[in-house]
Amino acid sequence: MNAQQKEMLLRIMELQFAATELNLYLDTHPDDMRALQEFRMRSQELMSAKMEYERVYGPLLNYGLGMTGRTWQWIEDPWPWEVNWRRS
User: Fold this and answer.
1) Of 4, 18, 33, 80, most Cβ neighbours within 10 A?
2) Alpha carbon distances (Å) from 41 to 3, 26, 34
3) 67 has a pLDDT exceeding 90
4) Strand ranges (E), the chain
């Protein structure tokens, strides 16, 4: 896995974390328009980041949502949880 691919995966994880935290906050503060706007922005950024990753490196998911036209590419190594995140 090259540095650009790791960087893209890390960005996806960061955006996923932010969107999840905002979603949880909005569960208890549904009228917070600033948080709702931030959630929408982060969610859009997340979807764009995932689409770009899949365009370049193939699907992130193996069932139905990661359709890139390259069938069964999702089984190729390394899997996302097998990435060595130590910086060299």
Assistant:
1) 18
2) 26, 14, 11
3) no
4) none
Please name the residues in contact with 51: beta carbons below 8 A apart, sequence gap of 6 or more: none
The number of CA neighbours under 13 Å toward the Cβ of 18 is 19
Q: How far is CA 70 from CA 24, 39, 42, 47, 59, in A?
A: 35, 31, 28, 19, 8
Distance of alpha carbon 22 from alpha carbon 36, whole angstroms:
8
- Residues 10-62 have pLDDT tens digits of 999 999 999 999 999 999 999 999 999 999 999 999 999 999 998 898 888 76
56-84 residues labelled b (16+ CB within 10 A) or e (exposed): ebbbbeeeeebeeeeeeebeeeeeeeeee
What is the amino acid identity at position 57?
A: Y
CA angle (67, 20, 43) in 5-degree steps: 55
pTM: 0.72
